């Protein structure tokens, strides 16, 4: 979907059309006074047309503003989002989305999985124990879906959790812990084939600093894989698998700068043989930053999103290096972040998250990349709050999020094609 600047949505005033031919006897009968009347009428009509144009132009360019967002030039479409075809029940829950078609969508929340079959939503899985917490899901194929998370306990220890859908049932699959007696958490999963699935997260040992966690499914079992580089104090928050030789993991690392703890974005890449750290823009001088989502349309066109210096952070991979791309400015707040990004083409990228406000809570934040710049897009749902995941499904983009008011249920929005 292409977007225009609001001021270009109205055509320029039309130019005079072809001159109308008048019978010769009528032309001869027109004297100077008649010609002056005609000229005056034409001038008046031009003034009305031009004045009307600027009134319409001014009206369209004054788009509603998002509180806390400097959205000069923000785009507001008449119906940018449309609800999923069937109303959601209050039992719906979801913070993660995945699917390959508009009539086959999976959504996972902390305690259940729901499925859209093109006609309605239904609960298809609930963990047998409340101590099983679901963090993310990924559909490799219609009969191959993975859930990851953690099995919590009353104390510090927790265990990695991996659950598989085979097309006929759900089954918990054994996965290793990286640290005995510590917190072992998987927060994101992605796969390129049935025997090549990656899950990432973090571990907190009984003593010592947090560290990243990577596990791999080879079609038979899960195994621990060691990332490269100095990653003490780091954790992974998202992963993207483009192929068996092109996998990304992103997150952030807590570092000490002049006696102050700051977060610095972290990216790692799998080339088919090993993981290696990829240089990320150094944000220490501007207050640091964190990455929470990664997505893109090709190996040379990836996006990573998160937060930086209490604002929004978007980074782009062009096949050679990561660079920070300016995102619309927002009022500084610790609750500002972009959680997820998805793309169908280099000029059609969507990122979602939330804008925090100490006095009024938070509200949804949506931005679109048209190939040249990011622009804020108004969310027409006044109750929309935190947006957690966006994914491309056919010609549509689907978003799952949580309402601004407490006690509500998760909701789905879809961008109409």
Could you characterize what this model shows?
This protein has 417 residues and is mainly beta. The protein has two domains: 21-61; 81-415, Neuraminidase. The protein is 9% helix and 49% strand. The strands form seven sheets. Strands 1-28-27-26 form a four-stranded antiparallel β-sheet, with no helix packed on it. The chain has a four-stranded antiparallel β-sheet with strand order 2-3-4-5, with no helix packed on it. The N and C termini lie close together (7 Å).
Number of strands: 28
Strand order across the largest sheet = 1-28-27-26
Portion in helices: under 10%
Q: What is the CATH topology of the largest domain?
A: Neuraminidase
- Quick one: overall form? globular
SSE blueprint and pairings:
Blueprint: H1 24-29, H2 32-61, E1 81-83, E2 96-101, E3 104-108, E4 113-116, E5 121-125, E6 132-141, E7 144-152, E8 158-165, E9 170-173, E10 183-193, E11 196-204, E12 211-217, E13 222-224, E14 234-243, E15 246-257, E16 260-270, E17 275-278, E18 289-298, E19 301-308, E20 311-317, E21 322-325, E22 337-345, E23 348-357, E24 361-369, E25 374-376, E26 384-393, E27 396-403, E28 411-415
Antiparallel strand pairs: 1-28, 2-3, 3-4, 4-5, 6-7, 7-8, 8-9, 10-11, 11-12, 12-13, 14-15, 15-16, 16-17, 18-19, 19-20, 20-21, 22-23, 23-24, 24-25, 26-27, 27-28
TL;DR of this structure?
This protein has 417 residues and is mainly β. It contains two helices and 28 strands.
